[in-house]
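Hi L.,

You mentioned the student needs an example of a multi-chain input paired with its predicted structure. This one should do, with 262 residues in total across all chains.
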Amino acid sequence: MLEIVFLTLIVAAGTGGELCVSHAMKAVGEVHDFRPAALARFVWSAARVGWMWIGIGMMTVAFFSLLAMLSMENVSFVVPVTALSYAAGAIGAALFLREKISKQRWLGVLVVCLGVTLVWLSRR
Amino acid sequence: MKDSPGLHLKTYTLLLFIAFFAPLGNVLLSKGMRGIGSAQDWAPQGLFHILMRIFMSGYIWLGIACLLAFFVAYMLVLTWADYSYVQPASAFSYAVVAVLGLFLLGERVNLLRWSGIVVICFGVFIVGHTHPRTTEKR
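Structure written out for the whole complex:
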């Protein structure tokens, strides 16, 4: 039961957090300069966007849930199963970030979910 | 929609960076948590004891460093690429994590799990052949 709670937190809070971070990154704008000083400026700019901190907060919840799951199950089981967030992520990206998700991309997401199901079944 | 110069090259480079550092971080965290053991006691004192052991583990800190490197790369690629592209494309890390789990932690990975990982990689391949950006550049 506890494993289901942690798994739900990893998927829901993790995906929600990543969507918020993605929204913040689009506000910062495309990076062209990858030198250390430019990267430091980039991190500073990102830190000043509110969505970034909401995202980090949600991802922190997901992170500690991941730590709890890793203390109970093998890493080669835990990490692939958390890929259920791909379906949630694609829906969230279409609704929240207004991304145009082509049929090919949806197919890819579904194939990833199928792979996750196989990994889940491998546990038994 | 006009692409910036080297869009695909920098996208693939950062995705490879993500695919390596995220699983390495997870494997190091797993190794650290194995040394600490399963959380049996959920009372505040028991939780505090486990948290102290987590913060004193070298593997946990190395894992966190790898995950920080991964996160900066992840932030960078999201400044130009779609989330719905980056998220599934970075799933290649599941193959890397299985290999790391096998060789670094000695975990047994059965045939069905390998099949699942191969299917995940195929899904990543399909997503990787879509355009990284579908929204207008700001």
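You could point out the following to them. The mean pLDDT of chain A is 87. Chain A has six helices and no strands.

Best wishes,
N.
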